[in-house]
Amino acid sequence: MDPHHGMTVEEASPAQERARRNGHEPRTPQAGGAGLPVQAMDADSFRTASQRILTAINTVIDGKADAARLALTVLLAQGHLLVEDVPGVGKTLLAKTLARTINCSVSRIQFTPDLLPSDVTGVSIYNQSSRAFEFRPGAVFANIVIGDEINRASAKTQSALLECMEEHQVTVDGRSYTLDEPFMVVATQNPIEMEGTYPLPEAQRDRFMARISMGYPDMVAEIEMLETHQSSSPLAGVSPVVTATEVAAMIAAVQHVYVSQAIKEYVVALGRATRNSPLLRLGASPRSLLQLLRAAKATAALDGRNFVLPDDVVSVAGSVLSHRIILDRKAASAGDTPAGVIRSIVAALPVDRESAQRPQAAESTPGHGR
Amino acid sequence: MTLAPERSRNSTAPGESEQPVRPAHPRVGYQPWIMAAGTVLATGGASLSLNGVMRGWAWYLPLLTTVLVVAGVMALLRSLRARPLVVTAGGLAALVAILTLTFFRGTAVAGFVPTGQTLSALEGLLQRAGETVLSESTPVAPNAGIVLLACAAVGVLVVLLDALAVPLGMPATSGIAILAILVVPAMLKPQSVGWLAFLLAAAGYLVILSCSQWYDTGARLAGDTVRNPGQTRRTALIGAAALATTLVLPTAIPGFDTGSFPQGSRLNAWGTGNGLNPMITLGNSLRAPTGSGRITYGTTAGTAPYLRSVTVDSFSGESWGPDDRGAARQAGTSRIQQGTVLPPELKRSVTKISPGNFSSPYLPVPYAPESVEGLNGQWGWDPLTLSIRSSDTNTRGQQYTVVSSMPELTADLLARSTRPPDGVAADFTTVPADVPEIVRSTADSVAGFTSSPFAKALAIQTYLRSGDFTYSLDTPARAGYDGNGLSVLADFLGQKSGYCIHFSSAMAVMARVQGIPSRIAIGYAPGRLTGETMTVAGVEGVSQYEVDSRDAHAWPELYFEGLGWVPFEPTPSRGIVPSYATSSSAAPGSPQSLENDDALDAPAATAPAPTPSSSAVPLPGGGTSPGAGPGAGPWLAALGGVLGILLLGVTPRTIRGAVRASRLRAGRDGPAAGITAAWTELEDLGTDYGVPPQLSETPRNYTGRLRGTGVLGEPGGMDDAGHQAVLALTSDYETTVYGPPEANPEPAVAGTHVSGVDAASKQAAGRIAAVQEALRANATRPAQLRAGWIPPSTLRHMARFAAAPLHGTAVLVRLTAKATVRSWEGARDGLRRLRQG
Questions:
Q1: Residue B695 contacts A where some CB pair is shorter than 8 Å
Q2: Where are the domains of chain B?
Q3: Which helix (H) or strand (E) holds B443?
Q4: Do B700 and A311 touch (CB under 8 A)?
Q5: Minimal CA separation from A93 to chain B, in Å
Q6: Assuming Cys at both sites, which of A59, A62, B70, B724 could form a disulfide with A221, CB separation 3.0 to 4.6 Å?
């Protein structure tokens, strides 16, 4: 599918032919669902493929299995990942490793205050020989885009990335160019208190499906890291374990995961609970609930199930919701954290099993969970 | 396309999966019928023992028909795979239909559909039954009302038994329904239940027990684990325990002094006599081996007098009761007068009586009382019979002094009284139209040849005291004519064996037939000396006598013009024949035991111990107290039995068991319902053993916690089956509730697709049983008891149910308060605005 899988991570050199080929065929962003006839992967292959990816990541990053799993979840749920932590805990390494394990095009953008939007999206330049404007794709034209230190760029450049992330397409000079699937942005950022940063606006934070915090490795993992990472780059040993086609098939499988009425009700109840919580100034948006459900579907699939459990929703709720909500001032000054508030809301939210049985009986047509 | 292809492989077309094929139960063909046979055997067999409570056998055919029809209809419905509720409802409908057909055929549509007329007919029959219950002693005459009541009660018990055994899943408890039948004869009949009825009932019960395993959803029988010894051993255990109880229990209870339960005696739960109908209790009082209700008295009369409580003067109807002319009763006991002409010279005596614990509204006094002093409460006397009765208290704890008077009667005096009776109420002369022929012919042949009333009376007394008649407490009961009434009298004259009631009523009725006014007096025969002395009316050193329930007695009183009422003593071996009645005309061979003169100061000979040792059959023994109100007894007992079953029905344990059984059966409505029900059961089991689910817990979280807390024991250990069952239940439940509709789990054990549904419910039952066992095995003894008898899950539901009205009220109050505050605030604002404007 992608002829440029061999490219290096540091470079962004999209091919002109591909841009031309894709540019005239605008597609819906949900390529896996309707546009591209990708066959969903069966359960066994899905399990082995996901296991291969996770194993590969875990060989590089010690003691961060949860982070690796969440990153894969976001990839399969067609979301974007925001990795946030202090410098030097392996944010970029995680992003790079994830990209390396998949045989697909990867580009990396190092965000700086002077980075221009066109550096991200691409630019039309005049070709002397053909006497026509020609689109030169930017760094975003890749399956996996690593946006390093995203909060160091100006708001203008950040929002250039915005459209690409949400719509999976780039518009330059009035023309839209569709991005390849799978498409995922893995952005890293330092906590906003650090020097020289532009905090991500709320709208942009909302576009990231999940935010994870790496955290420091535990003692054993850190010692092992010191030993293994001394001589050579750990990334050198990583070779792709799945192809982009396989990932697309996995994404399609995730989309087929069944969501029962009870789960939908549960997710909506969770959203409403965040909006009604006195501890929060801003609750979860409808989009965030959609992303929460998608992440839950991916979690279920990774768990080997073809239907979502409330447990799946609970397990991703903290990562999906905590970077979108805004704490009330009193709660913030009282020392509450967004993640803690989400946790307490989930702990108090009833799992209504009685109503869960009602729609089950009413529904007879299969084919839910598109 | 799905992630679980192994499930989609089994999934059928959508239409099929919605309506799962009901599997053919492999053995349904004969099961319901064997079950019905067991039910019929148990109830029909137990009902055999009602012979003796009801007279004869005429009642048995309708009863057996009722049992057969009800059990048959239920078996038919069950073999047609009707739902449990439908089976029970069908049984009740069949009961109504067969009762209508048997008793109200004329008023019903098509013979068995009740109409409004049927209801009024039913009311009539019930009223009749009620009268019988109140007035008759056992064995009662099997009139339509009584038989209807018996058939209805047994029919309801058949339905109950079936409901307990099958839909509620508590086959062992169904024995209570059988016991409800057996308890009636056990308490009322001197022979108790009888071995045949007991044997048949027990056999039927065992059949029901063994049948019930087909209907058990397998919770307790399916799992063959270390802790579950299996059905055979269980049955042996139950049998051994029951046998041991039957043998040990009678020896531990003081009331059992002969034999053991089915044949021997029994406790009487109804206490001492209420005295409402002393005639009814008389037979039982006499049969009691130990007397109760001891009355002591001393008298200035030279000899111990008869103590008279009440009289019977109406000889019509099925049975006789004390006459109660409440309106004519005179208040106060200081001046009691006879309305009849008496000789001028009367012999007066004073008697001081302490009834002690004896409790009756009728006052035992010597005849004829002139005044009674020292009574508490409201007492009144009947001018016609001089019986003294209280309207608001009874004899218990009283102590009173009676002045009584009698003419100095001699045979000579009596023989001279030949004038036809005049000035005596018609109550005492009426001869019922339905006096049996044998009574009339006997009276004629015995006394027809003489003309003077006294000669007739003497002839009748002589006839009854002759060797032809034997005194027996048992013959009447055994021959089924115990009690009183004209038909009883006919039986007695045929059998020539009975006790005082029969002798006295025979003499009274025959005298009345012969034109002598008569009535039956009931009270106590002269008592025994206690060896102590007391002071009566200033006379010191008066001998004290005592009587108790064994001295209860009945004797006829005949009216002679100019002399008043004169007592006679036709009962052989009881009481004292008055001097005037011991004329030479008395047959020399009569077994009259005592002469009045001899008895004067010969207490040892007075009133020999009435223990009827002459009887050959084993003594029925008797309870610690004599049977009181046995007429009401059967119905009280039946009512008690039904109430007991109902009460049992609402105990938490029973409710819990029934709920569990119904949940385990839910699988027949489809796998989803079964799995959901099994999950609810799992949650309730957890609640019972102290790990209740929390509202915000997902299924997985809950079972994780359940397994983690150790209530199930160590995973992988002895109770690993419980852990595995919990895991399987969780996974099935998750798939059912949250999974796609087409991928409902197919039971792994399903051999064929047809039996899948049944296998699924069996499997769920097995899992629940495994969880339950693991929980029980790892719980402490108090926790086990709590989970077994007061399961918190059920209590919670019950509390919620009970609190619903309170909750509703609270909500209402809160809403009202809010509305009040709001309107008050509105009014206040309006006022303020007005003032400002």
A1: yes
A2: 25-216, 282-599, 661-789, 791-837
A3: helix B437-447
A4: yes
A5: 31
A6: A62
Among partner residues B4, B672, B698, which is closest to A306 by beta-carbon distance?
B4
Element at B405 (helix H, strand E): strand B400-407
B740 touches chain A (CB under 8 A): yes
Q: How far is CA B215 from CA B28, B156, B212, B334, B373, in A?
A: 10, 21, 5, 72, 70
3-state helix, strand, coil in chain B (%, to 5): 50, 10, 40
Closest residue in B to A359 (Cα) is B737
Instruction: Classify domain B282-599 by CATH architecture.
Output: Roll (3.10)
pLDDT digits (tens, 9 = 90+) for B643-695: 776 666 567 777 788 788 888 877 667 777 788 888 888 888 888 888 888 88
The residue type of B326 is G
- Residue B698 has its nearest CB partner, among A260, A351, A365, at A351
In angstroms, the CA B275 to CA A246 distance is 97
> Rounded to an integer, what distance in angstroms lies between the CA atom of residue B685 and that of residue B791?
9
The CATH superfamily of A257-362 is Magnesium chelatase subunit I, C-Terminal domain (1.10.8.80)
Contact check, Cβ <8 Å, A258/B739: yes
Segment B324-365, tens digit of pLDDT: 666 677 777 777 877 777 777 788 888 888 887 777 778 888
- Tokens 């002693």 -> residue: B137
Using CA of residue B317, residue B321, residue B323, residue B326, what is the dihedral sign? Answer: negative
User: Fold for domain A16-250?
Assistant: Rossmann fold (3.40.50)
Q: Per residue in B409-437, pLDDT tens?
A: 888 888 877 777 777 777 788 888 778 88
Coil, helix or strand for B193? coil
Phi, psi of A91 (to 5 degrees): -60, -50
- Give the residue range(s) of CATH 3.40.50.300 domains in chain A: 16-250
CATH code 1.10.8.80 region(s) in chain A = 257-362
